[in-house]
Design goal:
It contains 16 helices and no strands. The chain has 431 residues and is an all-alpha fold. One of its GO terms (molecular function) is hexuronate transmembrane transporter activity.
């Protein structure tokens, strides 16, 4: 319990603890809103196809340009977040993509939808760099992995809730009313964000040891060549592994349909199980390194062990082509999604713990850009393999992608280099 000072003010650690909880809750809700805003057009696609007579090429054009808008926005958004701070950057981005979502209801042509989807992508690109910078700026290093794990579960929760919300609303309000309501939720969150973050703001230069509530030493950020290698390893890791996530996100329903004969009415439960496993993997990925650390194993070495185990969990993925039982097939795919989330959480945790917080936005933006470009290229290539009925090469790459990403991290940023830099920084600080 926080002590009370002589003038009646609560001691600082308690206030900071409440501030961090408020920040975490807001970021979690914003993560759900971002995913719902992005997915609403996909969920309403059958209705829009009938009303506007869209062709497959029209929808592909709208989707691909939206993805590219997000990717290039990430590059600029990282710098903008570092320059103007989390509060204003994320608030403006949230307001922008929510308004763009609402404007979907006002357009009726392919070019109109293309315009609002590009606008949504530009503003939504702010989300990832701003969230990771908030982790670096407002949370102690020993807590960031756990917090990122919790936040990374938000899209998985949204993937389960958004279809239920859209199906419940569309029958009463029509597709235009549904889109307006979904977008308006984001505008309400914008008001909450600006009203609450002013009170939750904590100066970034406060001693991180005081934030953690412990006397334990925390890792000092790295700069120079090691910082650049860390950013490069993060970016290459995202480029190698994000295509697996995007492939499973877009093609898992089709795989279950092809392998097990599931129609649309029977896909819901298996997909919900897979997404739930992904959310669980995200949370486990945030907590596992701290649980393994100790007894001579540093937190950073524990992180590498967790990422290596996650990489191994994806190796069985190609077996889904031969396993005849639906339950086992879903479990293998769900395990791959969970392993991706565990791996991704620790990639983000590595970046936020070791880069200076005034560089986290740019580092995150560069890595997320590479991940999105890798995902876009993969989705373009995968179409040809699927059309030819050749899923094995695709699933084969998915199986080894995380082993490759783990190897890149070990080679580019070995633990000993980070430990050596931390010791030198601690020695310089003690002088």
């Amino acid at each position: 319990m926080a002590s009370v000072q002589a003038d009646g003010r609560a001691a600082l650690p308690s206030a900071r603890s409440r501030s961090r909880r408020t920040m975490l809750i807001l970021l979690f809700v914003i993560g759900i809103v971002a995913y719902a805003d992005r997915q609403v057009i996909a969920l309403l696609k059958p209705v829009l196809d009938r009303e506007f007579g869209w062709s497959a090429a029209d929808y592909a054009t709208i989707s691909s340009w939206s993805q590219l808008a997000i990717a290039f926005s990430l590059l600029a958004s990282g710098w903008v977040t570092d320059r103007f701070g989390v509060r204003w950057t994320l608030g403006a981005g949230l307001a922008g993509w929510s308004l763009a979502t609402v404007l979907h209801a006002a357009v009726s042509t392919v070019s109109g939808f293309l315009g609002v989807r590009i606008a949504l992508g530009v503003f939504e690109g702010v989300g990832t760099p701003a969230t990771m910078k908030a982790m670096a700026q407002y949370f102690a290093p020993d807590a960031r992995g756990r917090m990122i794990g919790l936040l990374n579960a938000a899209p998985n929760l949204a993937a389960m809730l958004a279809p239920l919300l859209v199906s419940a609303l569309s029958g009463y309000t029509g597709w235009r009313g549904t889109i307006v309501i979904v977008g308006s939720i984001g505008l309400v969150c914008t008001v909450l964000w600006f009203s609450q973050t002013d009170a939750t703001h904590v100066p970034a230069r406060v001693d991180v040891n005081a934030w953690s509530g412990k006397g334990a030493a925390t890792s000092r950020p790295v700069v120079g060549g090691t910082g650049r290698r860390l950013t490069a390893a993060f970016a290459l890791g995202k480029f190698l592994t994000d295509p697996v996530w995007w492939f499973l996100l877009f093609w898992l329903p089709d795989i279950l349909h092809r392998r097990y004969g599931l129609d649309t009415a029977h896909l819901g439960a298996p997909l919900a199980v897979a997404y739930a496993m992904a959310a669980l993997g995200s949370i486990i990925g945030g907590y596992a390194p701290a649980m393994l650390a100790g007894n001579g194993l540093s937190h950073e070495r524990a992180r590498r062990v967790v990422m290596g185990l996650a990489a191994l969990c994806v190796l069985p993925l190609p077996l889904v082509l031969w396993i005849p039982t639906l339950g086992w097939g879903v479990l293998i795919c769900g395990l791959a999604l969970a392993a991706h989330q565990t791996f991704a959480v620790n990639l983000f945790g590595l970046l936020t713990e070791w880069l200076p917080h005034d560089q986290v936005g740019r580092g995150t933006g560069i890595g997320a850009f590479c991940g999105n470009i890798g995902g876009a290229l993969a989705l373009h290539i995968v179409g040809g393999f699927v059309a030819a009925g050749q899923l094995l090469p695709v699933l084969g790459y998915c199986a080894v992608a995380y082993v490759l990403g783990w190897g890149v991290l070990i080679l580019c940023v070995p633990v000993r280099s980070l430990v050596a830099l931390r010791k030198r920084a601690d020695a310089n600080a003690a002088q």
